[in-house]
Amino acid sequence: MTPKKFYIIDFDSTFTQVEALDEMARISLKKHPEKEAIFQKIEDYTNLAMEGKLSFGESLTQRVKLLEANQDHLKQLIKHLKKKVSSSFSRNAAFFKKHADEVLIVSGGFKEFIIPVVSQYHIKKENIYANTFITNGDGQIIDYDHANPLSEEGGKVKLMRQLDLKADLYGIGDGYSDFQLRESGLIKKFYAFTENISRESIVTRADHVTPSFDEFLFVNNLPQSISYPKNRILCLVIGDVPKESIELLKKDGFSVRHKNDFEAKYVKDVHMLLLADGETLNADNLAKATKLKTIGYLGSAKKLQIDTCTEMGIVVFDDHKHNPRNTQFIPKRMVDFMNTGTTYLSSNFPNLQLPRIEKSHRLIHIHKNVPGIMAQINTIFAKHDINIVGQFLMTNSKIGYAITDINSEYDKALFKALKKIEHTIKFRVLY
Questions:
Q1: Of 166, 192, 219, which one is at a domain's C-terminal end?
Q2: C-alpha to C-alpha distance for 344 and 73, rounded to whole angstroms
Q3: Could you tell me the pLDDT band of residue 193, with boundaries at 50, 70 and 90?
Q4: Beta-carbon neighbour count of residue 314 at 10 Å?
Q5: What biological-process GO terms show up in the record (predicted)?
Q6: Which pTM was predicted?
Q7: Residue 110: phi, psi to the nearest 5?
Q8: In a domain? residue 349
Q9: What pLDDT does 141 receive?
Q10: What confidence score (pLDDT) does residue 105 get?
Q11: Residue 10's closest CA among 175, 224, 213?
Q12: Which of 340, 360, 364, 357 is nearest to 408 (CA)?
């Protein structure tokens, strides 16, 4: 039976973090005396085509000519590309296994390096559409198959018309050839993928900008490895915070905004807050920060209303000893808490340090430290036939912090029940 939907995914700078032909050039021309100049030419041809300023066919012809590549270089490239799969695609491998019939890789790249990379993710060989190289008897790449529609300008449009798939089509990519599918009317929606590169000429034309594959899965209500896309988690950085601290948060995929002073307009939407030494957060703003999960303070937390933070279920990490390494250590603690629920070395929460457990879901329940809460939590799990993989509870004088790893499917009724437990402060699903 033909699937009702197909997800058409680009390869270069989408499924992988890089442009494969650019990477092949760095391998094949490693010892060439003019390698840097040639690298630049190849990258220029790539970008001109991706931005729609040069025909794809002309760009491809010029790049292949400059490669001077052979089969040995191809093997090295494949090994390299397997390590360069985009992070959000890599962590959602389970999606590709479950939806193998619905995923198509459609690329102006080449099957010779695409198939070995995407096949690891259960993507079917017959669902991979790309160009093919032509080699001579010595294994030297001398040309490509010009009869393949994907080697031409507008090739993806031509291919999809030939396939004539009777289903709703959704396209994910970073370049002009991906947008052309939307422009042609062949696909229902085009998602500009910006995890690796953001091209303004493409982003402004997209139906939706998806900074990660998690975002694509989230907006389409598809199964994903994390409960909420990191690009939707707002991290507000206030004051004179070192660049390395900010970059660490950005690298992990959070949406980071850096301001000199706290602006009240952000208070209702902020999930993470990193404060420079000397910055403060008044009681009114703190009370309104209902989504706030964690605060990192590059100074002493004594300047914060630490008791209020605890009562609100906000985990605080501070640098009361002014350790120079804490410009990285504090944001790392914030990241670990958001990703795994680890509260190690927090200023106000019980210390709990746990590794991520694969093939499971992690639920966090923060509550007032009163008797009987865990019994109520486990009664709810039993009523919903939930199998518990691991469970941990730590308390202090004010709160209880419970983490439960489960390995079964669940429904939203479970979450509603856990949130309704009396004395619950915060509840969330990590992954």
A1: 219
A2: 46
A3: very high
A4: 25
A5: L-serine biosynthetic process
A6: 0.84
A7: -125, 135
A8: no
A9: 93
A10: 98
A11: 175
A12: 360
